[in-house]
Amino acid sequence: MIRPAIVGEIDSLLKRELCQEARFNNLAAGFFWYSVNGKTRRNSGRNDPRSTGGHPQNFNRKKKETQMNKFRFTINAIAVAAFVLAVASLAQAQATRTWVSGVGDDANPCSRTAPCKTFAGAISKTAKDGEIDCLDPGGFGTVTITKSITIDGTHGGGFGSILSAGASAGVIINITDVNDVRKTVRLVKLDINGASTGTDGVRINSANAVDIEDCVLDGFTNRGINDIRSISGKLIILDTTVRNLVQSGIVIIPISSATVTAVLDNVRSTNSTSNSGYAQSGGTGTINATLRNCVFDGNAGSGVFADGAGSLTVIGNNLSYNGTGITVTSPAIVRLIDSVVTNNTTSINAAGVGQVSSNGNNVITGNSANNLPTGPGIGGN
Question: Which residues neighbour 332 within 8 Å (Cβ) at sequence distance 6 or greater?
């Protein structure tokens, strides 16, 4: 956007040029009237058109053309300068690092000394592959991400909160720009609260890689993390809690033939009132996931659920107080390693025991039905 000062300068220059042209026209008209009414000496050489280089009307016309050419040149120069300044202003707005604050303003440039108010306000002023950081605690609103970026709630002074009550999602990730090579999003230290009326916490429609680190997602009518991307990619979730959902806490269901690889480490997914803590469903796509040191507790459906093409490796997990600890449907396979499956209604769904392989070092006890893995054993190396 062109600054008001530039607009004022252009207006001033235009007025100056128009005034100069008007003064010239008035003088030229007066000179011509004076000549044709015989006020000058007839025997003077000054009245002979041959002595002045031509008739006064021709002289006036040439002068006027010169004046108009100057005027047009000035206007073109001003237009070029205004365009250059506008482009420079836009480039300056795309900072690599921007800031938000609870007392910020989205009209600001989102710098550290003049932060923005919301993530949505800051993202338009943040360059691709850039980063938005929180200066201090605050609620910074829902956001749609369409380029590679990091949103960091910031350890220390900051606390990034997104209240998404009644919203379709706290964060929507949808990167489709062919010029965005990385198509990568990092969400760090964010508290995303659906207040029991928001639909999804984080919804992934399109991205090559999504990292969710040290976040809390709470209170959604659908899913906490809903990965329904249409292109192949990765999902990394670290040190994160997802809780109090109606549907599954963390879901990966790629569209079409996409392949998704996922790693969950030190993740807690609890209290789904009608579904699972973690669920992957390949459909026409493929999912290969590893869950390490995770807790899936108090989910009405399953602790973990897998069907469709792909595999699920469960290492050092605690699956307890769920309807079923592990539910698996062919052709998916589950590798169960060094995990505890206890206090569920059923340890492993009966139809799926042949799809579960064990390293022989799991604790499966205290379930109302202690169904044991019968798939091929996992040897040690």
Answer: 280, 282, 306, 307, 308, 309, 310, 311, 312, 355
